[in-house]
Design goal:
231 residues, mainly alpha, 75% helix, globular
């Protein structure tokens, strides 16, 4: 088993931090664009056709009202805490569950920071079902980060974890748009930013958490260590 050297680990963590910081900058700049005359007009112009078209599909609003809760803040915290408790019982190691909770808190903080800086508007009108939210869509961002990280912690490969995250993002994005709870650009921005945070989280997990686990106590950890050695 090859554990990354200090230099290699430092480089990976450095890249992860750069990606996370770039995500904040890009998220803010894109959000500011959606508030300009051109960006705002385009955003609002796309809203009615997308939200109206999706909500007109029979049963879409009813189904979306239920499915969209996979990105609800309280549900995400409950999911993170529940999985963390299960992992703690399974592995008898505090590091993975603590890291999962920290990522959940970090993802929520990321969304709050960007939302506060941008201070965007929220949709109103006949296409809004429920409570609309500002830029950006925290639900889409969180399901990407949490879904991908939990998948990797369960022994899924990174490639498949990204696919799972993409599937969850698609469900959350479509349901949020069908309910008219975000402007189109709010949702569109959340997807690449969510994957940027997922990448950064997995780099930290592979570099800091995984090498400190005991593979003989858990075959899933051993698989992750082998994947890390081949990365």
């Amino acid at each position: 088993m090859n554990i990354p050297s200090t230099t290699s680990a430092g480089r990976r963590l450095g890249r992860a931090l750069m990606v996370a910081n770039a995500a904040i900058l890009i998220g803010v700049l894109f959000g500011q664009f959606t508030m300009t005359s051109f960006g705002a007009d385009l955003n609002e112009g796309l809203f009615a056709p997308l939200a109206g078209g999706l909500s007109s599909i029979p049963g879409m609003v009813s189904v979306s009202s239920r499915l969209t809760d996979i990105g609800k803040l309280t549900v995400n915290y409950g999911m993170a805490i529940g999985v963390a408790g299960f992992v703690l019982l399974l592995r008898r190691d505090w590091r993975p569950p603590a890291f999962l909770i920290a990522v959940m808190v970090g993802a929520n903080a990321f969304q709050s920071i960007v939302t506060r800086i941008v201070d965007g508007s929220t949709p109103t009108g006949e296409h809004v079902v429920g409570t609309a939210g500002p830029y950006l869509s925290g639900g889409v961002l969180r399901v990407i980060v949490l879904g991908g990280l939990i998948a990797v912690m369960a022994g899924v490969s990174r490639r498949d974890a990204y696919r799972i995250a993409a599937g969850l993002a698609a469900v959350e994005a479509i349901t949020r748009m069908a309910l008219g709870r975000h402007w189109p650009f709010d949702i569109a921005a959340s997807i690449p930013l969510g994957f940027a945070l997922l990448y950064a989280s997995l780099e930290f997990y592979d570099t800091i958490v995984v090498p400190r686990l005991k593979p003989e106590a858990d075959p899933i950890v051993d698989d992750n260590l082998k994947a890390l050695a081949e990365h």
